[in-house]
Amino acid sequence: MKRRAFLAGGGAAVAGLAGGPALLDWRDERQVRELSASAVPAAPGQRLGQQRLIWSVSTVKALAALTFDDGPDPELTPRILEVLAEHSVQATFNVMGWNALRHPDLVRAVVAAGHELGNHTWTHQDLAFQSALQTRRQLERGREAIERTAGVRPRFFRPPRGNLTGSAIQSAAELGYDVLLWSVTRGSAGVGTPASVADHLARTVAPGDVVALHDGIGRGTFHPRGPGAHELRARRRVEVQALPAALERVLGQGLRLVTVSALLAAGEQHPAHTLTNTRRQ
Predict the structure, then answer these.
(1) Pairing label, strands 210-214, 178-180
(2) Taking the model in full, what pTM does it have?
(3) Does residue 264 contact residue 72 with C-beta atoms inside 8 Å?
(4) SS3 117
(5) Distance CA 40, CA 60 (A)
(6) For each of the chain's 281 residues, which pLDDT tens digit applies?
(7) How far apart, in whole angstroms, are the C-alpha atoms of residue 254 and residue 277?
(8) Closest by CA position to 80, among listed 61, 95, 102, 62
(9) Residue 218: C-alpha distances to residues 69, 78, 95 (Å)
(10) 24 to each of 12, 28, 128, how far by Cα in Å?
(11) Residues near 193 by beta carbon (within 8 Å), at least 6 away in sequence
(12) 214 flagged as catalytic
């Protein structure tokens, strides 16, 4: 049985196990346990310490973090780097390991420009449909690719689509990662227009926010001629086209856009009185 089809009927299946006729055989029960693995360490006495789950950062400083996922991409990443340089903005690029090995020059260009790298897994699999072992390998292979191409170890792990499981949280902690989510996205559903995306970002971004944009097409990378990939690339092109106007307007409001590490440091030095991690799209 495929994982996606299995999980789609998971609620009914678990209900049946709890109080009605058994709907799953022993192999499917094992799959339930595997895909819903706990974040609690399996090894007795294993101490994973403290890691952060970040949506936004509480700070009184006029700072927000800008992030890009799924790259590097030979069409999108160079254009984004140009725009960021023109506006003296630094960002966090959450890199897909498979792309890093195919475009090592772009990974090194990101680092050379003063930007930060995060781990966005090896091949952008949705971790909700990966076993504990598959999840661990996604994180490890992503890290290995980034370290091999850039010579730096990422501080952050951003899960594809923001989907987290117990296994993902445990693997991230074992590898020393803070888990990076977001509080603001591009806004527009569908492909949208550069004007609508820029307007949304200008109206929405506030101090402490983590803004999630893209410089790649995720799983579309592996099916570039499919309809899903075409729509994703169209969306990403709109984001890139919106970026100059969005940056000008956000910066014009007195905000500085920085890496996630810089935003966290500001939060530690100048915390706000109340924590605001409301997720705004």
Answers:
(1) unpaired
(2) 0.84
(3) no
(4) strand
(5) 35
(6) 444 443 444 433 333 333 433 444 444 554 554 555 666 666 666 777 788 999 999 999 999 999 999 999 999 999 999 999 999 999 999 999 999 999 999 999 999 999 999 999 999 999 999 999 999 999 999 999 999 999 999 999 999 999 999 999 999 999 999 999 999 999 988 999 999 999 999 999 999 999 999 999 999 999 999 999 999 999 999 999 999 999 999 999 999 999 999 999 999 887 664 444 445 56
(7) 21
(8) 95
(9) 8, 17, 10
(10) 10, 6, 19
(11) 238
(12) yes
Q: Which amino acid is at 149?
A: T
What contacts 280, CB < 8 A, 6 or more positions away?
183, 184, 204, 209
Please classify residue 81 by burial: count the beta carbons closer than 10 Å to its beta carbon, then call 0-12 exposed, 13-18 middle and 19+ buried: buried
In the set 70, 209, 214, 215, the catalytic residue is 214
Closest C-alpha among 163, 123, 133 to residue 31: 133
Write down the residue that tokens 């409301």 correspond to. 278
Structure tokens at 105: 């020059």
Q: Which single residue is written with the structure tokens 């729509």? A: 231
Could you tell me the two tokens for 88?
């003296």
Residue 255 corresponds to which amino acid? Answer: L
What is the C-alpha to C-alpha distance for residues 242 and 249, in angstroms, rounded to an integer?
11
Q: Which of 69, 70, 178, 209 is catalytic?
A: 69
Our answer to whether residue 73 is catalytic in this structure is no
Interatomic CA distance for residues 248 and 215, integer angstroms: 19
Write the DSSP symbol of residue 156. E
The single residue listed with the structure tokens 């009605």 is 20
